[in-house]
Amino acid sequence: MTTFDLPDLGEGLTEATLLSWLVDEGDMIEVDQPIAEVETAKSSIEVPSPYAGIVVRLHGAVGETLIVDEPLITVDTDGGGGFDDAAGPSAAAGSSAGALSYREEERAGTAVPADGGGEETLQDTGDEGSGNVLIGYGTSASAGARRRRRRAGGPNQPPTGPRAGSALAVAERPAQKAPRVSSPLVRRLAREHSVPLTGLTGTGPDGLIVRADVLAAVESRGAAPAQDQQTAQAPASTGPVSASPSLPAPGGLEIRERVPVTGIRKAVATTLSRSRREIPEATVWQDVDATELLALRARLKRQAEAEGSSAPSLLALIGRFVLAGLSRHPELATRVDTREDGEQEIVHFDGVNLGFAAQTDTGLVVPVVLHAERLSARELHGEIGRLVGAARDGSISGKELTGGTFTVNNYGVFGSDGATPIINHPEVAILGIGRILDRPWAVDGELTVRSITTLTLAFDHRVCDGGTAGGFLNFVARCVEDPTTALADL
């Protein structure tokens, strides 16, 4: 047997929450077949198996936190089913003669009866991997993998009915494959409505199960609505823990439920708590007249509609102003590194990876545009749209959520006039954009109505002083107030 550990999930990720098992103990699995869906601090992903064989043991329950490099699944790759001690000599002999390897079975689609008992069994002819990659891990050769044998009836074993889990039991039924689903969010929707994916026929390309298939199944049986979003984010097996009616609470209130802090919510809490703990943060802000920027955006939009293209969004235009400001004040796109001797140094980078805070159904994430300084406003608009869309449908990769050196947070879309954003550790600065409101404003000594927004910059006082921060913020503000002149210099 071979035990497969939870693989490396990307830079800095050491744990994941188990959302669902896609296989059961006793199932026959193939190389690269998805075996589990896990939620990391970055996104939900499916973990493929690097081995083919019979599932002997699933390590962990749904809702449990799994640690990288600890056991995930145990697979019997030689067809013994993990019960060779109980099966007797004839079964052991049958597993060593006349059987096809899983590679041969994949090609032929059959199993050959073994000599001696007429039983169908499987054996592994090698530890060949697929080469496919899951965020930093490849299903390469498993020469160094751990192997162990367990006696039937021992702890944590599958049910031990007649020939339970054996190769014969597997051969007597079709090999099970996890249903093909368009995204983890579709799996979550099915889980919330208790819709078994194995019973659905996908209407997507090549039979792919899509959101509409799950909703149609829910409607056809009159399923109850999905649970409250906050409750839905709690792992299904643990669920909210209802308190006893007699349990005292502050102010005489009763505890209604307890929701575990896991996955993305846990990652956000960890990052922001570390930011507050380690960074000596300071904040500067400025009210800015965005009337001319709105006028420019309207002209670009009319022109794009006439050409059948798309115009840069306000966020993309301000993003270009931010990148220009960072070229003049590069201290704000650095990181503070602590060496082994305890001394700190400011690390400068060649370019800017620009992050944009985005709200999704599973929490706040920050997709990152790599080398954003190389993109025009229109190209930046396209990349922001792609990344935010991928984040909201659950298809974004871990690589696209890491490596930022400066973040822009447009909390104005939520109706906030202003805020004091928390720096996205290990970055050293973040720019917040409030909503744009019509307000009285003095122009050339006369009072008039203008479109005003508030820009707020939070920065790490270790990397620069108020002069640098104020200079950067003032530059971005001038670009917003006079974008035509600013764009001529960008």
Keywords for this entry:
490 residues, alpha+beta, OB fold (Dihydrolipoamide Acetyltransferase, E2P), Chloramphenicol Acetyltransferase, 3 domains, seven-stranded mixed β-sheet, 13 helices, globular
Structural class: alpha+beta
- Rg on CA atoms, Å: 28 Å
Q: Spans of 5+ residues with little confidence (pLDDT < 50)?
A: 81-176, 223-247
- The CATH class designation of the largest domain is Alpha Beta
Mean pLDDT rating? 75
Distance between the termini: 61 Å
Which CATH architecture of the largest domain would you pick? 2-Layer Sandwich
Cofactor: (R)-lipoate
Keywords: Acyltransferase, Lipoyl, Transferase
Family: Belongs to the 2-oxoacid dehydrogenase family.
EC number: 2.3.1.-
Describe the structure.
The protein is an alpha+beta fold and 490 residues long. The chain folds into three domains: 1-178, RNA polymerase II/Efflux pump adaptor protein, barrel-sandwich hybrid domain (OB fold (Dihydrolipoamide Acetyltransferase, E2P)); 186-232, Irregular (Dihydrolipoamide Transferase); 279-488, Chloramphenicol acetyltransferase-like domain (Chloramphenicol Acetyltransferase, 2-Layer Sandwich), CATH 3.30.559.10. The chain has helices spanning 84-87, 89-94, 102-108, 167-171, 184-192, 211-221, 229-232, 263-278, 291-307, 314-328, 377-393, 466-481, 483-488; strands at 2-5, 15-21, 28-29, 34-39, 44-48, 53-58, 65-67, 71-76, 281-289, 335-338, 344-347, 354-356, 358-360, 363-365, 368-369, 406-409, 429-433, 437-443, 446-460. A hairpin with a 2-residue loop joins strand 13 and strand 14. Helix 10 (314-328) runs antiparallel to helix 12 (466-481). Residues 81-176 and 223-247 have low confidence and may be disordered. It is an enzyme of class 2 (transferase). Belongs to the 2-oxoacid dehydrogenase family. Residues 181-218 form the Peripheral subunit-binding (PSBD) domain.
